[in-house]
Fold these 2 entries.
Entry 1:
Amino acid sequence: MSGEKSSKVKNIVRKYRLYPNKEQETYFAKCFGCVRFVCNHMLWEKQEYYKETGKNIRITPAKYKKEFPWLKEVDSLALANAQLHLETAYKNFFRNPDAGFPKFKSKHGSRESYTTNVVNGNIYLEGTYLRLPKVGKVKLRIHRNVEEGCRLKSVTISKESTGKYYAALLYQCACIENQVHEDKIENVLGIDFAMHGMAVFSDGTKADYPMYYRQAEKKLARE
């Protein structure tokens, strides 16, 4: 056996406390509201369409931007991720009803959050700041660094009931592992027990017993 190194990809999440200014807080509130609005409208339309046809319908946030132009003021990827999360929850329900049917989001009873993705370096860490689309640099507290070889994929911004803001950063990391594999067998030697002697090898050679007792038998009797 011998070992060689192989790479394996895994995802890790780092959650940091955010300290937005008043202007950034206003944007976050607007983004939370737009995500909630889009989710509720898509869910309502999907329910009505299913009642009428018994089939599912796929709706994108772009459908609402003409009627509600203020949706264009927030990160478009935040709205796209809201659609993806709703589609996933919808499919999970039909696969397994125990998962629960997607619920409408209320302004006060639901967790306020939105997710955006890294595209062409639009999101990055710079010192004690996190750069976000349409927000700029938001101050944060980093209490744990990310290992080398990790690439930022997405960020989820959330506001807790305490009023505190957090950023959950999803990283894709390449891990190097030792992989064991079998070496190619080139030479084989078979060994078989022999009735006369100790063993016979597949190459024709033999191994006899050393006969220590027989050789020392007379000496042992004399002693």
Entry 2:
Amino acid sequence: MKIAAGYVAGLLFGLGLAISGMTDPARVLGFLDVAGAWDPTLIFVLGGAVVTSFIGYRLVFKRSAPLLGGVFQLPTKQELDVRLLGGAALFGIGWGLSGYCPGPAIASVGDLSLPLSAMLFTMVVGWFAARQMSQ
């Protein structure tokens, strides 16, 4: 049941990205181009995600435990450190250069192109490099 719930959540996420047009790197790069032909549509997608998460977390945390798990697994670390800030900076640079965030990139696999392939390949290389650095 847990796997099915994860599949449904991923399907909804990918469908939402595709319907909103956020799998199109030109739209994302248009949002990041605040000094040029700025495209504000990503703000509405982000706003919808924030509102949904805000309401969802309040409803979920009224429960004593998750529906499909034993206990809630929440991060305990609350301070900012070099790894978090450096990772966030690298994420933003990669997003700005490619126009793909990891979620939309994976949702776009059906329309695989050379730039998307390069982004996905380097993302996986980055995961492995980060894993090696943290050991």
